[in-house]
């Protein structure tokens, strides 16, 4: 059995779901019980229902998923994203699922899974994963220990080692609002960019039934500052040394207002980040908004609004 996100189920014709925007990547979930204990995740709190994050994950047979992928109209999806919970069986079930997907789809496969070492990462790449995410989620050692358990520098070291061994094929996920500050997050993002690691940035979203259900989502203006900083660092429009912080809060990008507005024109900085072809509709926000990660290009009025939020937050 394989779980699909509700949006993916609709894309493959397996479930009648009305959506204003469909995912441009098919999101699949392998495994059931997870041995991790992430405080922000229902599964980490022992709640093994059909949810991971805000998204529902109905279960289908391998034959149903294969039929949906084979009959998929060309161009509807750009990528497959296989997310595997950490279980006791290691990587063998993941390799089997990758093999199934490769037989029925030509789309590139991204994998988000726990790997213990470079050997396992290499085996998963050899099996057919185009790229692998070693998710850090947290941006500092203290936050990582508190919300995920384990040692941050060990996971970061493995990620950097893999990125060095297989350039351009590793990703990580970072969640804004777990207890770090903006300087922590942007400093880590800068080092990851320079190491060739692609970063997918999310906003923390409190979920009922988790250990962090009472923690508020980060303020939108703070998230916009981090998004803009990430975008400018990624595009080499600024250097980390040009950014100014006070008590962890980003105060300046080292650009004039006019130049900053020019760099952010169109609002690309506020769209979903990560693998190419990934938009993750409503993964960390409610459909009624506000949208933390836009899953589509912004309209001119939306871009103007979000840039205005950002500018006011650093000028106030």
Regions with little confidence, pLDDT below 50 for 5+ residues: none
Number of helices: 10
**What is the rounded distance between the termini?**
53 Å
Shape designation = globular
Query: How do the helices and strands follow one another from N- to C-terminus?
Result: EHEEEEHEHEHEHHEHEHEEHH
Structural class, by secondary structure, is alpha/beta
Determine the fraction of residues in helical runs and give it as a percent range: 25-40%
Mean pLDDT: 92
Strand order of the largest sheet: 5-1-2-6-7-8-9-10
Relative strand content? 15-25%
Largest sheet: 8 strands, mixed
Spatial extent as radius of gyration: 19 Å
Beta-strand segment tally: 12
List the helices and strands and how they pair.
Elements: E1 2-4, H1 6-11, E2 25-30, E3 51-52, E4 55-56, E5 59-60, H2 62-70, E6 79-84, H3 92-104, E7 109-112, H4 118-127, E8 131-133, H5 141-147, H6 152-165, E9 170-176, H7 182-194, E10 198-203, H8 220-234, E11 244-246, E12 249-252, H9 257-264, H10 300-315
Briefly, what is this?
This protein has 316 residues and is of the alpha/beta class. The protein has helices at residues 6-11, 62-70, 92-104, 118-127, 141-147, 152-165, 182-194, 220-234, 257-264, 300-315, and strands at residues 2-4, 25-30, 51-52, 55-56, 59-60, 79-84, 109-112, 131-133, 170-176, 198-203, 244-246, 249-252.
Which keywords apply here?
316 residues; alpha/beta; 15% strand
What does this structure look like?
The protein is an alpha/beta fold and 316 residues long. The protein is built from ten helices and twelve strands. It has helices spanning 6-11, 62-70, 92-104, 118-127, 141-147, 152-165, 182-194, 220-234, 257-264, 300-315, and strands spanning 2-4, 25-30, 51-52, 55-56, 59-60, 79-84, 109-112, 131-133, 170-176, 198-203, 244-246, 249-252. The strands form three sheets. It has an eight-stranded mixed β-sheet. Helix 8 crosses helix 10. The N and C termini lie far apart (53 Å).
């Amino acid at each position: 059995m394989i779980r699909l996100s509700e949006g993916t189920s609709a894309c493959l014709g397996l479930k009648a779901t009305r959506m204003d925007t469909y995912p441009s990547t098919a999101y699949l979930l392998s495994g059931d019980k997870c041995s991790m204990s992430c405080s922000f995740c229902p599964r980490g709190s022992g709640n093994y229902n059909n949810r991971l994050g805000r998204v529902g994950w109905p279960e289908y047979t391998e034959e149903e998923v294969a039929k949906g992928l084979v009959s998929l109209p060309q161009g509807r999806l750009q990528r497959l994203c296989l997310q595997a919970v950490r279980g006791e069986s290691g990587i063998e079930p993941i390799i089997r699922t990758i093999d199934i997907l490769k037989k029925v789809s030509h789309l590139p496969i991204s994998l988000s899974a726990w790997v213990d070492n470079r050997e396992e990462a290499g085996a998963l790449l050899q099996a057919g994963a185009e790229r692998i995410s070693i998710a850090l989620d947290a941006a500092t050692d203290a936050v990582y220990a508190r919300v995920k358990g384990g040692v941050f520098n060990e996971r970061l070291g493995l990620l950097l080692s893999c990125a060095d061994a297989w350039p351009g094929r590793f990703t990580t996920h970072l969640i804004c609002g777990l207890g770090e500050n903006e300087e922590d997050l942007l400093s880590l993002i800068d080092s990851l960019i320079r190491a060739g690691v692609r970063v997918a940035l999310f906003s923390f979203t409190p979920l009922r039934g988790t250990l962090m259900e009472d923690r508020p989502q980060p303020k939108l203006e703070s998230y916009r500052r981090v998004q803009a900083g990430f975008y400018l660092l990624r595009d080499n429009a600024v250097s980390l040394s040009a950014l100014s912080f006070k008590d962890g809060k980003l105060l300046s990008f080292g650009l004039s207002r006019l130049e900053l507005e020019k760099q952010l024109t169109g609002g690309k900085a506020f769209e979903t980040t990560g693998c190419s072809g990934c938009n993750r509709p409503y993964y960390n926000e409610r459909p009624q908004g506000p949208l933390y990660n836009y899953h589509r290009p912004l309209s001119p009025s939306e871009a103007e609004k979000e840039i205005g939020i950002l500018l006011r937050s650093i000028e106030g």
